[in-house]
Amino acid sequence: MSGNLQKVCLKILKEYFGDIVAKVGDTLFQKGSNPLRILCSTTKLPLSKVKEALAVLIKHNLVTWDEWKPGIPCYTLLHDRVLLILRYPRYVYHVREKFGEQSEMIIDVISKEGQATASHVIVTSSLKMYDANTDGMNKGSFEQQHITARNHLLNLIENEYIQRCPAPQDSNKPVPKLTVKAEDLYSLTPEMLDLKALQQEIQLRRAGEGKPEVSHPYSDIFWRINYDRFHIDFRDSEIRNSIVRRVDPLAGECLGALLKVSYGRSDPWVSVMNPVTVSEIRDHLKDLKYLEQYLKIIEEQSGGCVQKVGDAGGGQYRINMFNAFQSLTHALIDNIVQDRFGSKAARIFRLVRQHRMMEQDQIGEMSMIDKKEANILTYRLLHDNFLRIHELRKTLAPSPANKSIFLFHVDMTSVVRMILEWSYKALYNLMVQRETRANDNRRLLEKHIRVATIVENLNQSGGTEDQIQEVLDMMTPNEKEHLEQVNKIQDKLHVSEIALDDTIFILQMFTYYQTL
Amino acid sequence: MAATTDLDAQVEQRVVQLCGEFKQGITYQIIQNDMPTLELAQIVNVINKLLATGRLDMLKKDDDILVFKLRDPGSLHRVKGAEPEEQVVYKIIEECGTQGIWAREIRSRSNLHLNTVEKVLRKLESKKLIKSFNPVSAPKKKTYLLYNLEPDRSLTGGAWYSDQHFDSEFVDILNQQCWRFLEQRTVRARQVTGGPVAVRTASFVASKEVLKHISELGITKVQLSIDDIETILETLVFDGKVERSVAAEGAEGVKLYRAVSSFLPTPALMCTPCGVCPLIKECDDVGNVTPVKCRYMKEWLDVEW
Amino acid sequence: MAARGRGGRGRGRGMTLEQLGVQRGEVLPDNIVGPPETYPLLEFKPSQLPQKENMEYILCIKKDFQEHMQNSQYNIQPEVKNMDIERYSDRYQLLTSHRGQLSLTWSRFPKELHPMMASLPKKRKLKPAKVVVNVKKARTKDINVNETLEELEKKEATAGVDETEEDEGGERENKAEEEVEEDLEEVDEELDEGTDYINNYFDNGESYLDEEDDALEEGGVF
């Protein structure tokens, strides 16, 4: 089952960056860090193309380099980042929910460039806003769009969703070293932007000029997405949602407040955060009745995510991320067993997981399942590696009868690893299906694009209704129906891939906290 | 002769008294020790009279010593007119209460021939004085006990076994019914005002109450105990549907249960064919099992087409 | 993990079905499906994904992102070799071959990745040297001098032209370098698949090449 991550990464690179970049990336994955020369000879691609591919990968934060020999760099693929490409739509949406459409456009622009200058981001996202809102926006408000964009960008940077990219100290060196000062990481100061120039460029581009010659200051400072910051929010969402399911929405609010206060005094990525008091939490919530009650309940119901540690200040509570993701992962895997083998098997699985080591007979008795059925289910769980067996010798006597007992147990770490691999495989399979079906229907899809392009051109150049209809009729009703079906299937596959990332995220969090 | 009769009556009384003291039975030796002045012949007479009138039972212990026990006046009615062997066998079975006893053991205790024992057992069964069952632990050993008694739970496997077979269906039905009861209680509890703790408390149900509800449902004639119900409720805990808590009430805690939801909804992996696929380990880019050839994918995607 | 096959005996630590108390020949759920098919009936179908209101929008973002990246300059395309036949489909190719040069701030990348080669002369020297290397693999003695000579002349000619452009410091420096590189590759390919007699010819004429080398440096073409 190993190699699933590699296949997924290859597929992702291919889908977004093409075969050449994919081949280079895949070689780096398989062969490890390598210099340019070896990449060329291994991939058998032209030198110029390998260079371009590397540049693209670097710009999208997927490859880094080190000085391997004097003047010669050695490139390394960050394969976890490749997987994150599938998460970009979630980042974009998250920011839309939290800060609005302008911020959404900013994150969208940066994702597509990998790294971008502040001016590029402001200009491009403003234009996107204009395109998205032509009916709602009058000329007046658009004049100031660059200010709005600048403000949103500042906000995102201050909240650490966007960070400054490390820059080369001395660009004359053949192998530049990239660094960034900690105080600069989230610092975009006013002098770094020329508002007039921004406004000018936006106007010129709106007027239709492709490449206006407008210069901006600090055009050598680039910005990129701070993935971990988004992951904090996603992580918090997971635990909040689970509490809402277990208790109710208000409990989710309380937990949210508890988290917020905790971040004021703890590193967001530690296993166990510092305690906060009820009074501090209360300050954060407008007016929540029964706060103490909710906290008490959350403590009892959260599977160890929230722990009470004292009574000072009305009660002290702390977040325990390790426990949180342990509980969530247990629930996840229990659910997986249930959906794959049935509820009786899930009962057995939970039993063994909680009792650590169990004998076969015990399993039958405690689960209240017919012994024969219990044995069969146990065997199936064993066969699929959800359960493991540990042999204990009872006697040293050589007689074969009853000389050892078999104890069943759950090895969480290896089960998690197995399910991650399984998820990668599922992801790969879904992507292959999607690609295959797109290829099978290429003619139809291309025809549709042609028709759509022509219609759009007609619309822009003022074509008549009749003309447009004539073009639309180029697609027969049969074709239209077939096309709709093809698209429906493509969407279903896309949605499954997006959803699968959720499972992967929880398992990644579990692994992170286990290995801290 | 009057003196002899008086003396006999006194001896009788004394023997009966002694029997009362020594519930496990008395021997000639004990009687002699108690009344050393008596002649053995006299004792024998008295004993025989008591046996004949059915006030005493005679048993032979392993070392061939005769033992005499008081007969339970109740059972006297039931076996009136029965042969001595029947009385003996009946007594033995009676002593074993709800544990019961199997034929071979009866033979050794009564020192009767196995054939005799078997014959007597048939007779007693036909008179509906005794009945038989097979314990779960030793399904071949036919065990006898008094007709009006129920065999001990430990032997029959309790409520869960009928004819030595584990009754899965019965267990599942109970499981469902308990769950439903707890779930309804949780729904009702949400109407409670006074904050979330009140709601939570209101959604807990004591095992006693669950037992009462289930018994009233009348889905089974089997008498369930608190332990039985708690066993079922524990399986619901392992189903991830119920949580257990303990409330202090008097000397020991009372077990409380309530319905809960899972932390997570159905995992996304299980919403793809790959999650439920039995061939996932064989799946590769070459061979018969590939994502392109996958039949499950086809069915999953083309289901509306 | 070796493939285990459905319903087969597990090989884990000597645990067999018998040991688990299942009698021989007893029907297991797996085997109910008669003769073995590649894809046995599913015991449980895939579940329905819980409906999320935001899923539709996220789906849009994903599709838009994918489409954008595929059409962006970051989707590196191979060089289209056969531009001689204009294909019908070319008319409807969206943007693919019109991306041109990758536009990046090259100072942020290792020098070796820059499209403009700092050490051009060195590179130039390499070109004939490469020819020599291939040449040394020659075997047969069949010769077709004129043809191959003319070809080589042509190659050198274009290289020479580029060089003069270089000297003029034209804007098309980068593009030219690309072409040179392409030519270089093409020359290599030709020689690699090439006939032995070409190689063999130059086996005898190494000094010929050296002279040429000098000739290049002087700026003239032989």
Automatic annotation (TrEMBL), chain A:
Keywords: DNA-directed RNA polymerase, Nucleus, Transcription. It is found in: Nucleus. Belongs to the eukaryotic RPC3/POLR3C RNA polymerase subunit family. It comes from the Eukaryota. InterPro entries: POLR3C_WHD, RNA_pol_III_RPC82-rel_HTH, RNA_pol_III_Rpc82_C, RPC3, WH-like_DNA-bd_sf. The keyword Flavoprotein does not apply. Residues 7-64 form the RNA polymerase III subunit RPC82-related helix-turn-helix domain. Residues 154-328 form the RNA polymerase III Rpc82 C -terminal domain. GO terms for biological process: DNA-templated transcription. This is DNA-directed RNA polymerase III subunit RPC3. Residues 333-410 form the DNA-directed RNA polymerase III subunit RPC3 winged-helix domain. DNA-dependent RNA polymerase catalyzes the transcription of DNA into RNA using the four ribonucleoside triphosphates as substrates. Specific core component of RNA polymerase III which synthesizes small RNAs, such as 5S rRNA and tRNAs. GO terms for molecular function: single-stranded DNA binding. It holds the Pfam family RNA_pol_Rpc82. One of its GO terms (cellular component) is RNA polymerase III complex. Component of the RNA polymerase III (Pol III) complex consisting of 17 subunits.
TrEMBL record, chain B:
It is found in: Nucleus. The keyword Nucleus applies. The keyword Cell inner membrane does not apply. Its main location: nucleus. GO terms for biological process: transcription by RNA polymerase III. One of its GO terms (cellular component) is RNA polymerase III complex. Keywords: DNA-directed RNA polymerase, Nucleus, Transcription. It comes from the Eukaryota. Pfam families: RNA_pol_Rpc34 (PF05158). InterPro entries: RNA_pol_Rpc34 (IPR007832), RNA_pol_Rpc34-like (IPR016049), WH-like_DNA-bd_sf (IPR036388), WH_DNA-bd_sf (IPR036390). DNA-dependent RNA polymerase catalyzes the transcription of DNA into RNA using the four ribonucleoside triphosphates as substrates. Specific peripheric component of RNA polymerase III which synthesizes small RNAs, such as 5S rRNA and tRNAs. Belongs to the eukaryotic RPC34/RPC39 RNA polymerase subunit family. This is DNA-directed RNA polymerase III subunit RPC6. It comes from Halocaridina rubra.
TrEMBL record, chain C:
InterPro entries: RNA_pol_III_Rpc31. It holds the Pfam family RNA_pol_3_Rpc31. GO terms for cellular component: RNA polymerase III complex. It is found in: Nucleus. One of its GO terms (biological process) is transcription by RNA polymerase III. Keywords: DNA-directed RNA polymerase, Nucleus, Transcription. Coiled coil: none annotated. Residues 178-195, 208-222 have a biased composition (Acidic residues). Residues 151-222 are annotated as: Disordered. PANTHER family: DNA-DIRECTED RNA POLYMERASE III (PTHR15367), DNA-DIRECTED RNA POLYMERASE III SUBUNIT (PTHR15367:SF2). Belongs to the eukaryotic RPC7 RNA polymerase subunit family. This is DNA-directed RNA polymerase III subunit Rpc31. It comes from Halocaridina rubra (Hawaiian red shrimp).
